[in-house]
C-alpha cells in the first residue's frame, strides 16, 4: 500500500486576474478552490493514474468537514489526526497578462507533542514491510525539523520504503536518515548544497546524494528537464514544451508517479518517464487539479530520455 503523510495540508485557492495592481482594488476573472498540501496532491494524482493510497497526517478540527468531504468525493482513503484550529488556505495568484504565478502560503495550525506522538503511533499501526510512505511538504508550527528524520528511521526499521520531498532544514535533516528515494527540485537542492548551474554539476550533486545513502534521487529543474540518479546510472529527461496554466503541484505529480511506479515494480526508465509525463501533464491543468490520464499517456510517447553517464 502507498501512504502519504501531510503534516501541513491546505485549501488551495487559485485566483485568476489580468494584472495585480498593488495598493488598489483588484477584481478576479475567476477562482478555484481545491484541497492540497504536498501529500494530498500526491494522493490525488495516484488516484488519477489508477492507484490507491491512504492519506495520513493532521487536519484542523474547525474545518475538517469540508476537507474530508472532498477526499471522500475523490475516493481517497484517509485517517487524519484532528488538531485544534483550522486547516490553512493558500492563495495562488495567476496574472494572465504577464504569465506570472504568485503563491501566498499561510502558516496554518500548530501541533503539540501529543499530536506528534499520535501520528507516530498511527504510522506504526499501518506500516508493513514493503509499504511505500511519501513524506512531503512543509511543517506546521510545533513540529521539529527532525520529524522527517525520525519518521524515516521508524519506517526503515519496519522495512517500509520511504520517499522524501521537503525543503530547508527538514530536507537536510531527513537525508541523514537515508530515505530510499528523495525528490528535490533545483531550488530546494540549492538551499542545502553548493553547485554550479550547469547540468553536469547538477548531475554530480545527484551522485553525491546517492553517496550519502539514498537509493534514488530525482531532481526536477522545471523548464530545464529532470535527472533520475541511482548507484549505477544517471538518466536525463528533456523538457517537453507545453502551455503552462499552473505550476503548483507539478513536483507532487512527479512524486506520485514515482510512488506508483515503485509499487508496480516498474523499471527505472519507465518510472522516470511516467514521473516526467505526470509532472508535465500537471502544469497544463488549472489550479491544483490532478493531471488527466489521457494527457499523461500522450506525453509518455513524447518525453525524450537519455543516459547521461
Automatic annotation (TrEMBL):
Q: What's the domain of life for this entry?
A: Bacteria
Put simply, this protein is called Tagatose-6-phosphate kinase
One annotated GO biological process: carbohydrate catabolic process
Q: What does the UniProt record say this protein does?
A: Catalyzes the ATP-dependent phosphorylation of fructose-l-phosphate to fructose-l,6-bisphosphate.
The catalytic activity, as recorded, is: D-tagatofuranose 6-phosphate + ATP = D-tagatofuranose 1,6-bisphosphate + ADP + H(+); beta-D-fructose 1-phosphate + ATP = beta-D-fructose 1,6-bisphosphate + ADP + H(+)
Q: Which NCBIfam families match?
A: 1-PFK, pfkB
From the broadest rank down, the organism's phylogenetic lineage runs: Bacteria, Bacillati, Bacillota, Clostridia, Eubacteriales
Question: What pathway does this protein act in?
Answer: Carbohydrate metabolism; D-tagatose 6-phosphate degradation; D-glyceraldehyde 3-phosphate and glycerone phosphate from D-tagatose 6-phosphate: step 1/2
Pfam families xrefs: PfkB (PF00294)
Question: Does the keyword Membrane feature in the UniProt annotation?
Answer: no
Read off the PANTHER family from this record.
Answer: 1-PHOSPHOFRUCTOKINASE, 1-PHOSPHOFRUCTOKINASE-RELATED
**Annotated PROSITE patterns:** PFKB_KINASES_1, PFKB_KINASES_2
Residue ranges that the Swiss-Prot or TrEMBL entry lists as coiled coil: none
Could you tell me the EC number(s) of this protein?
2.7.1.144
Q: Domain Carbohydrate kinase PfkB: where?
A: 8-291
What's this protein's family per the entry?
A: Belongs to the carbohydrate kinase pfkB family.
Which InterPro entries does this UniProt record tie to the protein? 1-PFruKinase, Carboh/pur_kinase_PfkB_CS, PfkB_dom, Ribokinase-like, Tagatose/fructose_Pkinase
Give Gene Ontology CC terms.
Answer: cytosol
**UniProt keywords, alphabetically:** ATP-binding, Kinase, Lactose metabolism, Nucleotide-binding, Transferase
Q: Which CDD domains match?
A: FruK_PfkB_like
The keyword Acetylation is assigned to this record: no
> What GO terms are given for molecular function?
1-phosphofructokinase activity; ATP binding; tagatose-6-phosphate kinase activity
Amino acid at each position: 500500500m502507498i501512504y502519504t503523510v501531510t503534516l501541513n495540508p491546505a485549501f488551495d485557492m487559485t485566483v485568476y486576474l489580468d494584472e495585480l495592481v498593488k495598493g488598489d482594488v483588484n477584481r478576479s476573472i475567476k477562482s478555484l478552490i481545491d484541497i492540497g498540501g504536498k501529500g494530498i496532491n500526491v494522493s490525488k494524482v495516484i488516484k488519477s493514474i489508477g492507484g490507491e493510497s491512504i492519506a495520513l497526517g493532521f487536519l484542523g478540527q474547525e474545518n475538517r468537514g469540508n476537507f474530508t468531504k472532498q477526499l471522500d468525493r475523490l475516493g481517497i482513503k484517509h485517517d487524519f489526526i484532528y488538531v485544534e484550529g483550522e486547516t490553512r488556505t493558500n492563495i495562488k495568484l495567476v496574472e494572465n497578462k504577464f504569465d506570472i504565478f504568485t503563491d501566498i502560503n499561510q502558516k496554518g495550525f500548530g501541533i503539540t507533542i501529543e499530536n506528534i506522538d499520535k501520528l507516530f503511533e498511527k504510522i506504526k499501526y499501518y506500516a508493513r514491510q514493503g509499504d511505500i510512505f511519501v513524506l512531503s511538504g512543509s511543517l506546521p508550527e510545533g513540529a521539529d525539523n527532525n520529524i522527517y528524520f525520525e519518521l524515516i528511521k521508524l519506517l526503515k526499521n519496519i522495512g517500509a520504503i520511504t520517499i522524501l520531498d521537503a525543503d530547508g532544514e527538514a530536507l537536510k535533516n531527513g537525508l541523514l536518515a537515508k530515505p530510499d528515494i528523495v525528490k528535490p527540485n533545483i531550488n530546494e537542492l540549492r538551499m542545502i548544497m553548493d553547485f554550479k548551474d550547469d547540468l553536469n554539476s547538477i548531475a554530480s550533486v545527484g551522485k553525491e546524494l546517492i553517496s550519502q545513502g539514498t537509493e534514488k534521487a530525482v531532481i526536477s529543474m522545471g523548464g530545464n528537464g529532470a535527472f533520475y540518479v541511482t548507484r549505477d546510472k544517471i538518466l536525463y529527461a528533456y523538457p517537453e514544451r507545453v502551455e503552462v496554466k499552473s505550476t503548483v503541484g507539478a513536483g507532487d505529480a512527479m512524486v506520485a508517479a514515482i510512488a506508483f511506479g515503485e509499487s508496480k515494480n516498474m523499471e527505472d526508465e519507465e518510472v522516470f518517464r511516467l514521473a516526467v509525463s505526470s509532472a508535465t501533464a500537471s502544469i497544463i491543468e488549472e489550479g491544483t487539479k490532478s493531471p488527466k490520464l489521457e494527457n499523461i499517456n500522450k506525453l509518455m510517447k513524447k518525453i525524450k530520455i537519455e543516459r547521461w553517464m
